[in-house]
Design brief:
Number of helices of chain B: 17
CATH architecture of chain A: 3-Layer(aba) Sandwich
Strand order of the largest sheet of chain B: 3-2-1-9-10
Order of helices and strands of chain A: HEHEEEHEHEEHHHH
Distance between the termini of chain A: 55 Å
CATH topology of chain A: Rossmann fold
CATH topology of the largest domain in chain B: Cytochrome-c3 Hydrogenase, chain B
Largest sheet of chain A: 5 strands, parallel
Oligomer: heterodimer
Number of strands of chain B: 10
Radius of gyration of chain A: 17 Å
CATH class of chain A: Alpha Beta
Strand content of chain A: 5-15%
Number of domains of chain B: 2
Helix content of chain A: 40-55%
Number of domains of chain A: 1
């Protein structure tokens, strides 16, 4: 079994397929992700191609803060991906909700719905940063499996406690505190 | 087309019709109908949106469009942030045309506060706006080419787009979401080295664009895929209120830069670009010609930019009032409505982005088309695209078939190949001009 796992990790490192999902981004990070696949940056030269179906993908590149409308779809896509699967949160919004944190229909970062392996901050993320993130992820595949599993487990536990709407609840609390005004850190001052 | 019209009529008179024979006909035709839900994600470029497309045979009889997947509540969030904070929030309405949104917002506030921005700032706004139009249209050209299976042109145009992004990064400090506008002017000055680089880029791009225009105008395979697809006549365009290149391709001169000049457009000559094809081909030609026009505007502004300050001081609190501000985004007319109540936060902000107007005509454009033409028809209004989501084909006769968006794209390429139109065989003519 261990040998099989090793073989799978080796194969994933050689040619990971990515799926890209926009969970509520402003398109800035999306076009930079596509940019990373076109001639100037050309992720394909390290064996990475983008393709459409989550069932064929190894890495989920997720951009943008998660909105209520896209939340279920994001979870669905993640569930449909075969193991081993990895998630890269591209952009400040995907990492933490960014400038949209606190808006009434924004859940927060990608990690409020699915476990994330690599965070790439930036607004918008430069293609170089995306390439570096993918490369770093590939370097650690196989090594940090145990840690990743424990992270995923703790997050799954919190989700089982009917906590999927965590972001929403937080928002409601924020709203109450701010006397019905929303907006995150920026409006606190 | 006749069959489609009949069906439409039938649907309209559904309740009045008592005739048994036609009822039977309708039942048979409804049994043969296939419903395809596509989306909601077209993740790479603009708004994710879902389409529920009803087919009869291979022809589209109806299309329902759903948007709102990336609704983040920006308008509401604006009400609880100060004007300066909002400036950066408004820029993130759209990562592709961020400058046009922040320009519209700044202009509105400047009008409310009674500020006149320095001429140099107005020129810098124009230069950045035109660079943005260039990169947005090049991006579109690549995506449209990709949708018809012409990946060579996709890679070519995205490579050229990098040149524009380099200049934008040099002038603004960022490739996307430039952050150059501020209330009362611009935040960064433009120096002679930047101007030289801009002109150099303009020379390079002009050669490339003329080459693309020549390719689109002369290539028979491309015109077989583009001419007559996604028709939206002048009357229909006016009826649905489409804007930007979609309207201009139908022969309507709808360009805010000319109708209601803002920033420095009142001093800069802008030639209107229109076309009478009123289809996907027309929209392609309009966009390429617009890019050539943008280059001229950039050259003129760089040569005639006046010296002076780049910003004036703006008050923190904006006097009460309301204003409508319009700009010409790469996709068409962009409208911002701002109401202030005398504090440092706006009372209400409303944004009508151009794509919102262009979606209205989409249902009409899709009706009567073949399934194979759906990807390029949707791409032609320049929405968010290159979808990586799944679509499910539900066939009432033969069960369910699952097909992702790339599958649909592949289907459209194969469908045309069977009819002797193979875009992947198009050879890019040889050209000396190289990066």
């Amino acid at each position: 079994m261990k040998l099989l796992e090793k073989a799978i990790n080796w194969a994933t490192r050689k040619s990971p397929w990515i799926i890209h999902y926009n969970s509520g981004s402003c398109n800035g990070c999306d076009i930079e992700t596509i940019d990373a696949l076109t001639p100037r940056f050309d992720l394909e030269r390290i064996g990475i191609i983008q393709q459409g179906s989550p069932r064929h993908a190894d890495i989920l590149i997720c951009t943008g803060a998660v909105t209520i409308q896209t939340r279920d779809r994001l979870k669905q896509i993640y569930d449909q991906m075969p193991e081993p699967k990895y998630v890269i949160a591209v952009g400040t919004c995907a990492c933490s909700g960014g400038i949209f944190d606190g808006c009434y229909c924004v859940m927060g970062g990608v990690d409020s719905v699915i476990p994330v392996d690599v965070y790439v901050p930036g607004c918008a993320v430069r293609p170089e940063a995306i390439i570096s993130a993918v490369q770093k992820l590939l370097d650690t595949i196989g090594e940090s499996k145990k840690k990743r599993d424990s992270n995923a487990k703790s997050l799954a536990d919190s989700m089982n406690n009917n906590n999927l709407t965590r972001g929403m609840k937080n928002n409601t609390e924020n709203n109450a505190e701010n006397n019905g005004q929303d907006g995150g850190d920026l409006c606190a001052s | 087309m006749e069959k489609v019209d009949e069906n439409k009529e039938r649907a309209e008179n559904k309740e009045n019709e008592e005739n048994k024979e036609s009822k039977q006909n309708r039942e048979t035709s409804e049994r043969n109908r296939i419903v395809i839900p596509i989306g909601p994600q077209h993740p790479s470029l603009k708004e994710p949106s879902s389409f529920i497309i009803t087919l009869e045979g291979e022809k589209v009889v109806d299309a329902v469009i759903g948007v709102g997947y990336v609704h983040r509540g920006i308008e509401k969030a604006c009400e609880s942030r100060t004007y300066i904070q909002n400036l950066y929030l408004i820029e993130r309405v759209c990562g592709i045309c961020s400058h046009t949104h922040s320009t519209a917002f700044c202009q509105g506030i400047e009008e409310l506060a009674g500020i006149t921005i320095p001429r140099r700032a107005a020129y810098i706004r124009v230069i950045v706006a035109e660079l943005e139009r260039l990169h947005s249209h090049l991006l579109w050209l690549g995506v449209a080419a990709h949708e018809i299976g012409f990946d060579t042109l996709f890679m070519y145009s995205w490579r050229d787009r990098e040149k524009v992004l380099d200049v934008l990064a040099e002038i603004c400090g960022n490739r996307v979401n430039y952050g150059i506008n501020t209330i009362g002017g611009v935040r960064r000055d433009i120096d002679s080295e930047m101007m030289q680089d801009t002109l150099k880029m303009a020379d390079y791009l002009e050669g490339q664009l003329k080459y693309y225009l020549d390719l689109v105008m002369t290539d028979k395979v491309l015109s077989a895929r583009l001419v007559g697809i996604g028709k939206l006549s002048r009357e229909d365009a006016l009826k649905f209120g489409v804007v930007g290149p979609v309207a201009r391709a139908a022969g309507i001169m709808d360009d805010i830069r000319i109708i209601e000049p803002y920033a420095a457009y009142d001093e800069i000559p802008v030639n209107p670009v229109t076309d009478t094809h009123a289809d996907v081909f027309g929209r392609t030609v309009v966009r390429i010609k617009e890019m050539l026009e943008s280059l001229e505007i950039i050259r003129y502004s760089v040569k005639n930019i006046p010296d002076g300050d780049i910003a004036v001081k703006a008050p923190r609190r904006i006097p009460a009032g309301e204003v409508i501000s319009r700009t010409e985004a790469p996709r068409g007319e962009n409208i911002h409505y701002i109401r202030s109540n005398g504090t440092d936060m706006p009372d209400r902000v409303r944004i009508r982005a151009p794509s919102q107007a262009n979606w209205q005509g989409m249902r009409h454009m899709l009706q009567g088309q073949y399934l194979a033409d759906i990807p390029i028809t949707i791409a032609a209004i320049d929405p968010c695209y290159s979808c990586t989501d799944r679509a499910i084909v539900v066939n009432s006769e033969s069960g369910t078939e699952i097909m992702d968006w790339q599958g649909l794209r592949q289907y459209s390429i194969e469908w045309y190949k069977k009819r002797g139109i193979d875009v992947s065989l198009v050879k890019m003519p040889e050209r000396k001009f190289y990066a």
